Amino acid sequence: MATDRTEFAAVHEASLHDEAEIKKDNSNSPLSSSSADEPELDGIHDGLEFPTDEERLTLRRVADSVPWNSYLIALVEMAERFSYYGTSVVFTNFIQWPLPDGSRTGAGGLNGQSGALGKGQQASTGLTTFYSFWAYVTPLLGGYIADTHLGRFNTIYLGLAIAMLGHIIIIISSVPGVVEKSGAIGCFAVGMVVTGLGTGLFKSNVSPLIAEQYKRTKLFVVTLDTGERVIVDPAHTITRVYMYFYLFTNIGSLIGQIAMTYAEKFVGFWLAFTLPTCVFLMCPLVLFVRRKHYVRSPPTGSVLATALRLFGLAAKGRWSLNPIRLYKNFKAPDFWEQAKPSKQVGQKPAWMTFDDIWVEEVRRGVKACGVFVWYPLYWLTYGQINNNLTSQAATMSTHGVPNDVLSNLNPFALIIIIPILDLLVYPAMRKAGIKFSALRRITCGFLCGTSAMIWAAVLQYYIYQTNPCGYFANSCKDNPSPLNVWSQTGSYVLISLSEIFANITGLEYAFTKAPKNMRSLVMAIYLFTNAIGSALSEAFIPLVEDPRLIWNYTVVACLSFVAAIGFFISTRKLDKAEDELNNLAEGHLAAEDPQKHSEKA
């Protein structure tokens, strides 16, 4: 989804022209600027010093402080992720292994293997993969409901209520007297579906909501205590917001996963499902207490329908049965020009209640979605954490450690690495003039995912070589490989790095490049790429059993590497226009509602 500078220059010039016309029309407004080069007063940027063109190119850029409301919403996310991961971390054992002899709770004790349903590794991988798929499909519905009907805040509340019901159903499937019955699997599956629906409504809206608490959108200049003049860049601030959002996410998941794996091992699955549900109750309470203080974007009507009509108008006359010609037509620099209201001849369509600027907003949103095309192949690597790598750990010497506790290395590594990057590495790179742009970070993330799978494949080879059952290691539940389970550390740390570079940056990119009235929807499309990755994972089910597990990790590593190369090639031109795209988002009258921008005469 690359673009070139010539294309952007034309668009940028047009948007500046439109802005000048609007300022001219509003020159009598009490909020109009006294200078054509000075942004209008808006109560948010008043009194700030804005950089000149020369300063934009020469001054170092820094991030602003994160508002307290963002931290509170991050606290809600932490509690929700505690419940989500604290519950799902024990799904693999719950589904794969049978009840231990004489147990009614599934607890395996110090040296036993916890389990309940006894459906095997393929069934556990299939169901956990479906759960991930479902939880990342439903954000599309959540994004549509928020942008069109309820707004982000109310949609989050609806999602929390639905997820609470799902958690209760999952608890019921695990209590003694139910877990021993054949119907437990049906009850559990229903709970997964309901919980996944609530999670999807929540996830598509909490990410935009936390970033919206930071209101500044324009570059401004400050002088540090050292006397150095620097530019405070909203783009860097949003990066920081999402870094700490993800930090809170992983604090919640780390505590939840460690505690619940031990609850499962020594008490039973009913406790491992109940405790996260109790923590989950914190989410609506924190939101309710501060409900009058959050920045809350109202619904804007059927923006999706309007955007689809706009795309149809832009694509008119460009369709072709020849795929190469079709691609070139849709990539043409003037693709969106014929859809602008100013280009319409005669009577405009009744639905065209917006101006040229909103067309540029939609164009930017489409480009943001185009960047996500390669993500499903990356998610194949991340999806190994809570199923196949957990199963791999069960075939190694755990020395009394629950096999599913190793997955906590992922959030533990994130908690350590995120502050180091934010406080030390990223500022040092900016000071040294090294541009580690969003798209470059994503490419590095894909490569780290590749490395994690290479590590897992090599480790699986040595498990087969040292296990008493050879290439059928999963058959040796009571006689595992002598390899220490902590040998998996490399895979988890590399996946953590890949998350920081690929996933956090993806959240940031979805927010900063989407039109304001489509942020929940664009975020949902980004999350949907995870669902596609989960669907692709279902094709690997035949490889998820002995003796083919080495092939599973090897093929996933190859696909992630292909994604990294493909992503780099397809976005290298777009990467050059990163600053220009941020400037378009920053200063040129970003439309919050197409109905608010009536076309000029």
Automatic annotation (TrEMBL):
Keyword Isomerase: no
Ranges of compositional bias, category Low complexity: 27-36
Membrane topology: Multi-pass membrane protein
Principal cellular location given in the protein's record: membrane
UniProt signal peptide: none
Transmembrane segments: 156-177, 183-202, 244-263, 269-289, 405-426, 438-463, 523-544, 550-569
Segments of this protein annotated with the region Disordered: 1-48
Stored SUPFAM superfamilies: MFS general substrate transporter (SSF103473)
One GO cellular component, as annotated: plasma membrane
Keywords: Membrane, Transmembrane, Transmembrane helix, Transport
Biased composition (Basic and acidic residues): 14-26
Molecular function GO terms recorded: dipeptide transmembrane transporter activity
Localization per Swiss-Prot or TrEMBL: Membrane
Homology family: Belongs to the major facilitator superfamily. Proton-dependent oligopeptide transporter (POT/PTR) (TC 2.A.17) family.
PANTHER family (UniProt xref): OLIGOPEPTIDE TRANSPORTER-RELATED
Protein name: Uncharacterized protein
